[in-house]
């Protein structure tokens, strides 16, 4: 009988943690009986196309946590998460290994947890991404009551997952924060798998343009990227921006849409892109930009450098480990403008940066992720087997 592995994700959307979930399946499907537990969003053909995996229907089982009808259509992440936690704990004992692909899951049993961000840690969440007025994350009496209700519905086991289980960080930056604020050392740092269907376009044929990829959300600070590139244009460099991401019809989305309409001569709204279309856009842009500070990893930054772009990003967060070069990292708008202008005006600097990033890109390959995950799970099983043998000998 195959060893049974359960991989958990509260809701499968499009992001770095979903990439972890899909590549966990890819890494383990040949040697284990793999099951995914989630509340929704599972569309295997779409997920394979988005993340570059080749998971077949008969290589993974999917179990959906029951979500009350009234909650399904609401933006109620805490309640949906509580439904996921409750069901995950109910079925956890049916599996030999339990893996959380998105932050700690209260399985009630020993498990491995991949840390994606700090949405689960209230103090760190507010330090890294303070809530804006009008957002649902503001601390109000109503929200406190809602979170208390969700926590009660989730029926916590009381197990201290941070200290009793294995935590896997997606960057050294994430691991350092876990140690600093939780007093816990992560068992390992495993960079997420970054897959890009590369199209080879010579540098001379690429567009003098920037690409920005990801969710259009307040914490991504898209308006900051627009401000930076607008100043670069004012300084005489006619760069363009390809903005890849779905602009929602919420207040923030409306704000970004208005900024783009007012600058339609140089901002191209590409919408949500994936697969060949995404690879094509990445391949034809010489530069990339990311303006979200305190990213746990920054998977879009890794995607851009793997496509051959010179990428600029904030100094804090996991993206600093991806880029690892002072001429690519900035702490404010003015510094970003100066560093971008320096790269635009000096071909020798461009060449040096491209060489540097070409050496960084292989660190974030699917092959590296698969290899490290397989070794990690082998260690977990070996440790559990040794522990079981010890208990049996003591009993005898």
What does this structure look like?
With 396 residues, the protein is an alpha/beta fold. It folds into two domains: 4-193 and 366-395, 3-Layer(aba) Sandwich (Rossmann fold); 203-364, Glycogen Phosphorylase B (Rossmann fold). It is 46% helix and 15% strand. The chain has helices spanning 16-28, 44-51, 69-72, 77-91, 122-128, 141-154, 161-164, 172-182, 222-234, 251-262, 275-284, 299-306, 319-323, 333-345, 347-360, 366-395; strands at residues 4-8, 33-38, 61-64, 97-100, 112-115, 166-169, 188-189, 207-213, 240-244, 267-271, 285-289, 310-314, 329-330. The strands form two sheets. A seven-stranded parallel sheet has the order 3-2-1-4-5-6-7. It has a six-stranded parallel sheet with strand order 10-9-8-11-12-13, with helices on both faces. β8, α9 (222-234) and β9 form a beta-alpha-beta unit. α1 packs across α16 (366-395) and α4 runs parallel beside α6 (141-154). The longest helix is centred in the last third of the chain and has 30 residues, at 366-395. The chain is globular.
